[in-house]
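User: Could you walk me through two proteins back to back? I'd like the raw sequence and the structure tokens for each, with a short line separating them so I can tell where one ends and the next begins.

Assistant: Of course. Protein one, sequence then structure:
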Amino acid sequence: MKLVSAIIKPFKLDDVREAIAGMGIEGMTVTEVKGFGRQKGHTELYRGAEYQVDFLPKVKLEIATKEENLDMLIEAITSAAHTGKIGDGKIFVTALEQAIRIRTGEVDNEAL
């Protein structure tokens, strides 16, 4: 099992959700986060004053998946979240040692 964490632009969330739902993946966790990378924030004008916005709003997705679905999941997220502009985001994949469905007690792949 793998845990896929993706940081994407907020307006791409629905596109990504539809793409992974089409794969048959049934669940994900979504968190609103702020951060910066190469994009390094931007300046905004508010009531005539210019100020620097260092942390940009992003969305973090966490999806547990079976190993055999990993490549398709990464491709679905990448194609749905891609705009071609700086700040599209990143995908991180980590090993998931164990998963347990609390309601039924199912473990590992059955719990996904």
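----
Protein two, same layout:
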Amino acid sequence: MEKLRSFIAVNLNSEIKEYLTSIQTNLNITDAKIKWVEKNNLHLTMKFLGYLSLDQTELVKTILKEITSQHSPFIIKLSSNIGTFPTYQMPRIIWVGIKEGINELKELYNSIENNLSNQGFPRENKDFYGHITIGRVKYIRDKTNFIQILKRIEVNNFTQEVGSIDFMESKLTPQGPIYSLTAKFPLLKQ
């Protein structure tokens, strides 16, 4: 039986995707190997689920429909700076954070975590930190220079309404992952 590699996300509008792609272009650093997230793949992950059976996929859809009926649409705003995980000294992930709407994102995340864990899905072993991954660092020769460049970038505070959460499929290919929408769940609370 085929299993689908899945995650739950807030997808971004085209304006934010275009903007984040322009930041990636400005961050092309010599003597560095960074795998930039493709423009169409830029999103905010709410929960990575891994490989799911058809039954698990249907269960997740039922849970997400229930969760989204209890949450209202809200606005997120990009934060002004770029960060790295785990630290600036050891950059592995380059990300843009969320400045406004973070409390609403955390409430939504907690609903997802609690409802899914009640149905046997494993909980995350780290705190939720709303962010958009824009690149994965393979190698950087001059980390000091890289950090200075990152800290100089002032991210525009683009905003977007979060009107739904999306159940996504991720197909791994040699060229990188291909994401496709499995189901969209509008936030419906009045």
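The longest helix spans residues 102-118.

Let me know if you want the two compared in more detail.
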